Amino acid sequence: MAQPRASTDEENAPLLDNPNSTPSSSSQSPLKAIFSPSRPLTLLEKVLGGLAVLLLLLASIFIGLFAGAEGLLKKERGKHGHGGDGHGGWKTEYVTSTATTTQYGTTTVVNPAPGPTGKPDQKICLSPECVILSSSILQSLNQSVDPCEDFYEFATGGWAASHSIPADRGLYGAFNEVNDNNKKILIKVLDSISSSKPSKDASADEHNLAKLKAVYNSCIDIEHLNDVGRKPIIDLVDHIIDIFGEFDVDSLSSSSDLLDESPESEWKGTYDETYTVPADLAVSAEELEQLRKAKKSGGVKWDAPSPRSQSIQDFHEYRPNEEREARITKALAWLHSRGVQGLVNFEIEGDAGGEDSQVQSLWLYQAFGGLPSKEYYEEKPILDLYTSVVAGILTDIAEHSSIRQKKDKRDLISDLEEAIESGQEDAKGLLEELFDIADAEIEEDNWPWPWPGSDGKGSGDDHHGEPDGGRASKEPTDERMEKLAARVVHFERELMRAGADPEYLFNPHFAYNPYSTKTVGKLLPFLNIPTYLSTFSPRTFPVNITVTHPPYLKSVTNLIDKTPDHVLSGYFVTRLALTYASALGPKVTIRQEKKRLDDVLKGIKKGTEENRQDVCLNWVDEIVGFIAGREFVREAFSPEAKAEGEHIIRSIVKAFHEKLPHIPWMDSESAKAAQKKAEAIIPKVGYPLYPNTTNPESLQNWYGRLNIKENDFFGNVLGSTLLEESRTWLGLGRKRNRDSWEMYPQTVNAYYSPPDGEIVFPAGILQPPFYSQAWPAHLRYGAFGAVAAHELTHAFDNSGSQYDEKGRLRDWWTKQTVKDFEGRAQCVAKQYSKYYVYDAEGNKVYVNGNLTNGEDIADSGLAQAFIAWQDSMSKSDKSERLPGLDFSDEQLFFLAFARVWAQLTRPATAVSRVRTDPHSPPYWRATGTLKNLDAFHKAFGCKPGSPMNPPKKDQCELW
Catalytic residue positions? Predict the structure, then answer.
């Protein structure tokens, strides 16, 4: 490049003639000759002279432009190494430097600059959407890094440098950005809704919007919630006590039973505020949640079931007295109808093991407790904390329930009797106090006879009754409740110990054990199943019940046989309070006790306040999610986007279908079965049609039985739960409506359902950086297409491969194909087991490749998205280029893919997730997938042996 000239005084001086010199004809300026002629010019000379000046000026301008363009071109060629190779391709100038990424440690990288690889004859897209997208991509890049060294840093390093993790989160990434933006859209909708009540002749839309606004307003008004206090919970507790019996009694049973010894002595005093949940416990909790999801959405490898350790013939015959059986049955039905789990748990699910997986059948699960997984019940400090939380809840309820007020009256009567008998002078005062209480409570009180226990409740011919008739002692309530809490927690721990481990409980092979309803009734003698079912009014009485873990039935029966009624009552009340605590005001004691437990279990710093807006938006989803979904779709989605999304999915399915016969490890029989399954896949994009999210009348009918009040948030939560439970039970024995979804339209997620053979993509995820209809095809396929291909591939991974084209739990691969698949799947598992994150001390924590295997295999579906995009382009015009981006379409495809995995993660969160999450860390989801993909190597010219193009022996390929 030419060096700039030094400045001179002569150059800065005005170009004027020397006034002291004598001009000569040879040195006279041409302009002066024209404009100061020695003789008058003719008209023709003047015209010709003007044209000459104009041509001179134009020639000067073009020469200047040409020289400037030539200089820039030479500069770019020198910068990018575009010499005489004639290719204009990607040529790297290697300048070694070191870059450190927060999440993944220090790596040696190179300092290239991407060269222009786009074709000059492509049209440039200058629409606002393309300009914004181009700017976003440019800002997300770190072009100082060689894409063949570290493609994740190249594609997302700029994004990472310009973003940070919010204080209340452990990570922040592209998914969070989309979710936050979706929330802003919903808040905008909520703010635009009128606060006035709709008139009687208002439209369905107006009524729906009023419900939407009322739900949000009822939740956001925390001052009103705090003023309402505990009363909504107390009303429910009083009802369960009326059904089953009291928990606040004088003493424990004196008979020999499970709870003779003080269980709290085992863990009391072991918790202090410096305690943090051990990593292995966090792992167990996350595994439980992931396995629960995986049963419906695939992604986890299920092993064949092990032999039964116990058959149903081993169960002993136990029959409680009929009165106790009736009370337990009524209490469980009342709790379950309100979404409160206890003792056993019934679910309505598709009959995957039957002939038609769409028929909804009755499943019986074990109970779950107030702690995340059964392993938590073996951790003494957590049991100590949990016991204190349960004690705090029971104390608050006992001191403020109407049952407590009745006991206060009884105590006054007792004191009054003693005062009268002893001739004490304070008898008159006691009598006046008693009348004051009676006047205040007379309308709701049955005063106070019969005494607890004398009406048969809790009594009987065994130790289930209370030896003192249930009369409360003078012992302080908090001390009494502390003892009861220890026994409730002990009982709950025994229930958890009796249950199956999650890897068996949610394994569809292990858990599918259908028995006749009559047989199950015999195995659960404390529960009258016909009476229980009648509470939910199902349209079809189930012939069979699928028991997920048969040995649990005997265990829970034995536990109930040994447990006094007041402990069972305390257990029911605790489950009720923990389920609905989050619907109370933040300053209500029950809510505070629940939050105290949650904060420790989630590792949240003490005193951290919740983001009430986020809390209330989540409740909006829970209560009126489809109304919110309709408004979101109207603001952020279109019928054209839906049609285009469906087209992308179908093209990927088609590409996969055509590739199947050519998969080297799959024999022809399995390939044909796989093609049959691919043809049966049902893609769903945008929003459900049951209820019809596009039809306000459909939504009005869907929520017609839900009475929403702006000043009754707890009632809104309770009413919604009752409605959903009722709706679920009405589906028992009937085929599932294929237009229904498991997600709301605004959800930022996607899923594949093995029993249903569906891949589902809500409108919430079809947002930038995943999708925009205005984008060029290579970017739509690279981002959203990768998500679609991921979910499709789940249908053929080590979980989805166990369900046939009708969603039935069947083996449809040949043994040889299964063997060959496992070998290649293990290649992927070993590859990902070499990947890692860093903890806070800088130590490597490795990915568990077996845990992430299903998701890693699904990520490899990117190859099908690439093929589908290329096929679509071969049949249409060339795509438009983005302004300012000198990348080929192929390169932009892979940039679009990597950008969706942009994420910052705190070390503690990274370690926790790498131990529990079946998905690999985002860094490896991007780079691990691309290392195995030859199309990527070619697009960026990555040489064999480079970090992003490892030796073939270190690469893995399935699909």
Answer: 791, 859
